[in-house]
Amino acid sequence: MKVWQVDFYRRPLRDETNQPLWEFVACDRAEGSIQIAWCPQSNANDRWLAQQLQRSSDRLPDRLEFFRPECESLIAAAGRRLGISVEATRRTPLLKQVLQQRAREYPQMPHYSGEDYQPISVYRPAPVPVPEQLIGERWQFASLNAGDIEGFGDRPIPVRSMPQSLLPFNLGLASTLPIPGVAIVGGRKSRQLVRWLQDIRPVSIHYISGEPDGIILEAGLVDRWVLATFADREVAAAAQTYQQRLGSSQGLHFLLVRPDDSGMTYSGFWLLQPA
């Protein structure tokens, strides 16, 4: 499958008529190739973007990946024009690397505006509570040995997300290394909870200390959800262990939803890593 990571957004540059300039960047994930084109703001629409995608290669990609919410509608519309699938994902490392390098070059370019510009920053709203009707019976910090993670790919789990890039073996992690995570016993709400999680696309889980402490689920492109809050000292100690293990696991962790504590059935499993 041919996949391009793409961005199409205004930059801190202006053309001869003082119009903001937009930049199209496309990175071929497999080949490592990069395509760049400039567009005046008056022409920045899905038709121009579709035409540029066609010019960029003899063969159109099968999928476009993007991380910037502000360009979602344009990329989605251009994808529809060309029959290319589109995926919103925070995991566009090559593209983000290119954008950061480009940002260091802009001040040396003609018509640089000098305005504040953060190349991969996006607006993130404040976290909101998980809908009350989805809250399971209980939750806890947990861990699995790295060597046991891949076994979840063979279990009969209705909803599962285990990207190849996040498998412990592919990250070079020792099989005995504890991988931290959060386990939720959903009870009768398990199926409803995992369907909701599947829709919002979990990315990572963060522990936030405070009064009370909490765990925040990052999902989709910018969404943030309060999974739980707590003031218990034992739970806070487990949270500290969770944080320490994240430092050893390259940020790899998991979210597990199960209907009960039997250890026999699971409703959902996600491998996660900050992006």
Q: Which features characterize this protein?
A:
Nucleotidyltransferase, domain 5, 24% helix, 275 residues, five-stranded mixed β-sheet, Tab2/Atab2 family RNA-binding protein, 2 domains, 6 helices, 14 strands, Tab2-like, RNA binding, Tab2-like_C, alpha/beta, 33% strand
Mean pLDDT: 95
What percent of residues are in strands? 25-35%
Question: What proportion of the residues is helical, as a percent range?
Answer: 10-25%
Q: What characterizes the major β-sheet?
A: 5 strands, mixed
- Strand tally is 14
Q: Identify low-pLDDT runs.
A: none
The number of domains: 2
Give the CA-based shape: elongated
Enumerate the strands of the largest sheet in spatial order, edge to edge or round the barrel. Answer: 3-2-1-4-5
Element order: H for helix, E for strand: EEEHEHEHEEHEEHEEEHEE
Euclidean distance between termini CA atoms: 22 Å
Structural class: alpha/beta
Rg estimate, integer Å:
21 Å
Number of helices: 6
Protein name: Tab2/Atab2 family RNA-binding protein
Pfam families: Tab2-like_C (PF20429), Tab2-like_N (PF06485)
Organism: Zarconia navalis LEGE 11467
GO molecular function: RNA binding
Task: Describe this structure as you would to a colleague.
This protein is an alpha/beta fold. It has 6 helices and 14 strands. It has 2 domains: 3-108, Nucleotidyltransferase, domain 5 (2-Layer Sandwich); 128-272, no CATH class. The strands form 3 sheets. The protein has a 5-stranded mixed β-sheet with strand order 3-2-1-4-5. This is Tab2/Atab2 family RNA-binding protein.
